Amino acid sequence: MIQARGLGKRYGDVAAVHELSFDVPPGVVTGFLGPNGAGKSTTMRLMLGLDHGSGRTLFDGQTYAELTDPLRSVGVMLDARAVHPKRTAIAHLQMIADGAGIGRARVEEVLGQVGLCDVAGKRAGGFSLGMQQRLGLAVALLGDPATIILDEPANGLDPEGVRWLRDLLKGLARQGRTVFVSSHLLNEMAHLADSLVVIGCGRLLAAESVREFIGRNSASTVVARTDRPHELAHLLGRNGFRARVEADGAVLVDGDDRQAVAALALRAGLLVTELTLARSSLEDAYFHATADAARYRGHVAA
After folding, report:
1. Sheet architecture: strand order including 54-59
2. What does the alpha-carbon distance between residue 124 and residue 80 come to, in Å, rounded to a whole number?
């Protein structure tokens, strides 16, 4: 269990992180979301004691500085490029393993786990961004830790790599580990995460399951198709529903009461060929929740 309490960090007059508190439970993948400048990276650094600020974070009851064997307790990847460019992948891992008393067999094991065995003897400076990400992940997994914290681990990975990463992290969570992952890839996070911590302008916006977050920040819509769509929409409107007819003839009804829509259509003798429930995506819910929290906005030319 990760317990963050009262995390705060200021840069002059700007509060990058403000009184941030949340829990990250074991056994699930928790996604960490927020717009650019929301304070995600600063929050992760505060959690690990890498930045000076207020509050504290406990990993199974201890701060990171109090851990007697941190590599075996908390595996971290904040910047996959934090490796000497002239050092080989295996030499980089072996150096870290030696400092933590971890044997060479584990080094070779994690190289295989992240798919870098064939390039283990090559210098990291020649690695692509995706290969650097895999090496950084190998460092995080080196101590076989109970808690894994990763900042944007999917950056630079190809589609196969993204799917591999998803399966790996979900598998670690199923083993009972605590997995905390930040990402800007909302579509991937929808497949990966079980719960979310969402921040904006350094403040907590949500800490709940993905389903709860989507349900709280979006609305359901019933999609109906019939041979007389305008008649159905008018009928629904007379009975207290908000309904509209789309250009393709679909009748969209606010809410999720398909049974009531079906009953009204049946009584009116309307032939219904489709009656489905469309729910908003994580992306829709995220943009709704962070609408007032984005520091940087671009403009699309007319």
Report:
1. 14-24, 2-11, 54-59
2. 11
Contact 100, 71 (CB under 8 A): yes
Give the number of other Cβ atoms within 10 Å of residue 232's Cβ: 24
Task: Name the DSSP class of 302.
Answer: -
Burial of 296 per CB tally in 10 Å (0-12, 13-18, 19+): exposed
67 neighbors 76 (Cβ within 8 angstroms): no
Answer for the pair 30, 194: CB distance below 8 angstroms, yes or no.
Answer: yes
Helix (H) or strand (E) segment spanning residue 116: none
Residues near 88 by beta carbon (within 8 Å), at least 6 away in sequence = 120, 121, 122, 123, 124
Could you read off the pLDDT of 162-206 as tens digits, one per residue? 999 999 999 999 999 999 999 888 888 889 999 999 999 899 999
Reading the block at residue 32, the tokens are: 């960490």
For the chain, the straight-line distance linking the first and the last C-alpha, in angstroms and rounded, comes to: 49
CA 297 – CA 36 distance, rounded (Å): 10
What's the pTM value of the predicted model, to 2 decimals? 0.82
